[in-house]
Design brief:
Elements (H helix, E strand, L loop, with lengths): L12 E3 L10 H16 L2 E5 L9 H13 L3 H4 L21 E7 L4 H11 L5 H28 L6 H5 L2 E10 L10 E6 L5 E6 L5 E4 L5 E3 L6 E6 L1 H6 L9 E4 L6 E10 L2 E2 L17 E2 H8 L2 H4 L4 H6 L2
Parallel strand pairs: 1-2
Antiparallel strand pairs: 2-9, 3-4, 4-11, 5-10, 6-9, 6-11, 7-8, 7-10, 12-13
């Protein structure tokens, strides 16, 4: 499946740097409506977020640090392990020969970042630790602000604190190698939806991120320094009783360049349920109370791989 040039679609860009964006303001209410439309129509939107760039060029430094990380020996990177799927080192996979990723679980915790750093560098790396922790906190703030606005847009803000208390953030460093000279590979990561609640992806100079529209065409998300793609994952789709689309996306680009990007994946650590406000005669409840971690564990099983719709199989009423 290759990329298709698209002119009729454009992912909405929403400005989170607007000084008028304050809770209770007209700008806030209008932005909530924009977010809701974007998630229902595309499963995502581009967040313009200048806050990250007022802090010692942290955006530039995070990608420099990412390159340093991937330059480490493979034996060192493979120390990044986890009992949970998708939370440790991923690489050397025949189906994804050009992809490599490392992860810091609960990355907003300075202690967890230090554990990761001490695992990668025997003598530590204080600068890496400071940059990554600061970056993770800023991206988590953007995620929490945007998700709170989703709740408000649907009039279910009374449920926000309960869900917010269950959030945890996994920061992934992502690298896509250049193909060898005999390969014309363009699909670097196969089309998929994410299995968590929300994801924020940040590209550097080399683009490649694409989102599929409802009509099947692919929309390229072009990299800009202050632009972050916020995507709804499978768990937001379930939580919204199918009002929100889970964003179907891929990484596709040609040429012989390495590509680095960052991903913040927000999970819900505990059971939540579809708000009663999403259920009525026209919208019968579709899902039982759900647990994000249990679903991820199920998703990687041989049983789940044989099922066309693992979400409905696992959570469906």
């Amino acid at each position: 499946m290759g990329s298709i040039a698209v002119d009729v679609h454009e992912i909405p860009v929403i400005d989170f740097s607007n000084k008028e964006l304050k809770s209770g303001s007209h700008t806030w209410a209008s932005t909530c409506d924009q977010i809701r439309f974007a998630l229902e129509e595309y499963g995502c939107f581009v967040a313009k977020y200048d806050e990250l760039f007022s802090n010692n060029e942290i955006d530039t430094q995070i990608f420099c640090k990412s390159k340093d990380l991937f330059d480490l020996p493979i034996e060192t990177k493979m120390k990044n392990t986890s009992e949970e799927p998708f939370r440790g080192y991923v690489g050397q996979i025949p189906q994804l020969p050009l992809y490599e990723g490392l992860a810091i679980d609960r990355a907003t915790s300075l202690e967890e970042v230090r554990k990761f750093v001490d695992l990668m560098w025997i003598n530590g790396n204080h600068h890496f630790c400071d940059i990554v922790h600061s970056y993770a906190k800023q991206i988590a703030l953007l995620d929490e602000m945007a998700t709170k606005m989703v709740f408000e847009s649907y009039g279910v803000e009374k449920h926000w604190k309960q869900v917010e208390a269950l959030h945890s953030h996994v920061l992934r460093f992502l690298k896509y190698d250049e193909p060898n000279q005999d390969s014309d590979t363009t699909i670097r990561f196969l089309p998929h939806t994410d299995k968590n609640f929300t994801t924020i992806l940040h590209q550097t100079q080399v683009g490649g991120l694409q989102v599929q529209a409802k009509d099947g065409t692919w929309i390229s998300v072009h990299p800009k320094p202050s632009h972050f793609l916020l995507m709804a994952g499978d768990m937001m789709k379930v939580w919204s009783n199918d009002r929100v689309r889970a964003c179907y996306h891929q990484v596709s680009f040609s040429g012989h360049e390495e590509r680095y990007s960052m991903g913040m994946f927000t999970f819900t650590d505990g059971e939540i349920k579809v708000p009663e406000e999403f259920v009525d005669d026209e919208h019968p409840i579709l899902y039982k109370p759900f647990d994000n971690r249990k679903y991820v564990r199920f998703y990687v099983t041989d049983e789940a791989k044989k099922i066309k719709d693992p979400i409905k199989a696992f959570f469906g009423v």
